[in-house]
């Protein structure tokens, strides 16, 4: 038979539902215990597919959605999940997540979402595309509204609260605290198609806006401040700096300023007051510091120099390790990688995108290559991405210039 007449394989498979049922039967008790989460079941007499939009706080957010909405759901996931060889192939076979490239507007992902909806299943995604570093819902692309209208499905908003307190993105432990996950509202296609994209986008932002820069409970762990240095790299006393955390304390290695992370998520200065009450306030100050910085003042001497591991990613296939002993240096207009005796200069003007994955992995898209950079548990990948997007904003004449990659 001619290739063009071959029947396209279905994305939605019966085995995915079998895997889903078994997985939730086994994992739900563990998830409830680990996160101390209250998940409200979504009950509606009509069994129909939805487009589910959620805010993104923890590594298990998709499981909270599945526990609340016990039906076949296909999740949009970062391309990094699909570049791990046989593990990625197994994941595709078991649950078939929908891959999306964080670095650009991925029209292939949109087409696959439409395909899943046409086959009668629900699609879920976090429009932020990233877990929050600060506890506040992050940047959402305005094009999300157009995507919603293209899907033409009932729109279900799913809120996750308390996740930042229990498991901040920068941490590798779960605190003892409380979480809540639930459907906040549903919009019918007739309702959102009757309003402008701008009005729909405002509704999406409002529904998914969660601000955890509040002392709304206690989240206890003896390692409460570890590894906050994955998110923070600016000191209010000495500017761009390196921090190091131990247990509930984090200290600036430049000036010695020390801060305690309290069970209430508040910050407390040790020895003298700290000007920020919550990480979110400190994070906003850090962003403003970047916005007000002239990157061309930092082209001679490196701002940072760190040991890292370097990989080249064969997208949607596998990762090839280049070395475990590379050195990366950050300048205002570039990054430089030193591998053995070779110097690889990654000019910001030649990089087409950059993204941070997980707590501290850095993806660099340059020409037709994708490099992944991994450091130690204390590695701060965020500063490289922030400097890159600040440089892009300045050199492209972006009037707003506020987007720093997250």
Q: Could you explain how this protein is built, in words?
A:
- The chain is α+β, with helices and mostly antiparallel strands and 406 residues long.
- The chain folds into 3 domains: 10-208, no CATH class; 228-292, no CATH class; 296-395, Pleckstrin-homology domain (PH domain)/Phosphotyrosine-binding domain (PTB) (PH-domain like, Roll).
- It contains 10 helices and 20 strands.
- The chain has helices spanning 14-35, 61-68, 86-95, 107-118, 144-151, 163-166, 189-193, 197-208, 279-291, 382-395; strands spanning 37-39, 51-54, 73-78, 98-100, 122-125, 155-161, 179-187, 234-235, 239-240, 243-246, 249-252, 258-261, 267-270, 304-314, 318-330, 334-339, 342-347, 351-357, 361-366, 369-374.
- The radius of gyration is 22 Å and the shape is globular.
- The model has no long low-confidence stretch (mean pLDDT 91).
Tell me the count of domains: 3
Number of helices: 10
Largest sheet: 7 strands, mixed
Strand order in the largest sheet: 1-7-6-2-5-3-4
Task: Report the end-to-end length measured between terminal Cα atoms.
Answer: 48 Å
Order of helices and strands: HEEHEHEHEHEHEHHEEEEEEHEEEEEEEH
Question: Summarize this, please?
Answer:
The chain folds into 3 domains: 199 residues, no CATH class; 65 residues, no CATH class; 100 residues, PH-domain like, CATH 2.30.29. It has 10 helices and 20 strands.
């Amino acid at each position: 038979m001619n290739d063009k007449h071959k029947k396209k394989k279905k994305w939605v498979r019966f085995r995915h539902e079998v895997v889903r049922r078994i997985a939730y039967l086994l994992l739900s008790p563990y998830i409830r215990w680990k996160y101390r989460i209250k998940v409200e079941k979504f009950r509606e007499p009509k069994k129909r597919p939805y487009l589910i939009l959620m805010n993104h706080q923890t590594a298990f957010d998709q499981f909270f959605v599945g526990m609340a909405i016990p039906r076949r759901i296909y999740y949009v996931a970062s391309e990094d999940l699909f570049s791990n060889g046989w593990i990625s192939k197994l994941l595709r076979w078991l649950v078939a997540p929908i891959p999306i490239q964080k670095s650009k507007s991925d029209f292939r992902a949109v087409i696959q979402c439409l395909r899943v909806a046409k086959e009668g299943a629900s699609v879920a995604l976090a429009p932020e595309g990233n877990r929050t570093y600060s506890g506040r819902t992050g940047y959402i692309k305005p094009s999300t509204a157009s995507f919603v209208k293209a899907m033409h499905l009932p729109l279900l908003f799913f809120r996750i609260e308390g996740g930042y307190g229990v498991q901040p993105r920068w941490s590798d432990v779960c605190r003892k605290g409380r979480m809540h996950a639930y459907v906040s509202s549903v919009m019918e296609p007739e309702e959102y198609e009757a309003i402008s994209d701008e009005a729909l986008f405002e509704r999406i932002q409002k529904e998914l806006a969660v601000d955890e820069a509040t002392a709304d409970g206690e989240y206890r762990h003896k390692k409460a401040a570890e590894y906050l240095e994955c998110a923070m790299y600016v000191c209010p006393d000495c500017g761009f700096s390196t921090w190091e955390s131990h247990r509930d304390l984090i200290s600036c290695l430049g000036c010695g300023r020390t801060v305690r992370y309290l069970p209430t998520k508040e910050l407390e200065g040790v020895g003298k007051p700290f000007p920020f009450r919550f990480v979110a306030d400190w994070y906003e100050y850090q962003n403003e510091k970047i916005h007000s910085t002239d990157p061309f003042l930092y082209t001679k001497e490196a701002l940072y120099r760190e040991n890292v591991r370097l990989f080249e990613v064969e997208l949607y296939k596998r990762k090839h390790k280049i070395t475990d002993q590379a050195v990366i240096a950050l300048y205002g207009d570039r990054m430089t990688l030193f591998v053995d005796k070779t110097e690889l200069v990654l000019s910001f003007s030649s990089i087409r995108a950059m993204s941070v994955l997980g707590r501290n992995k850095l993806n660099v898209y340059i020409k037709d290559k994708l490099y992944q950079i991994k450091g130690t548990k204390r590695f701060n990948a965020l500063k490289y991405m922030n400097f890159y997007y600040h440089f892009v904003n300045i050199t492209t004449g972006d009037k707003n210039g506020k987007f720093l990659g997250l």
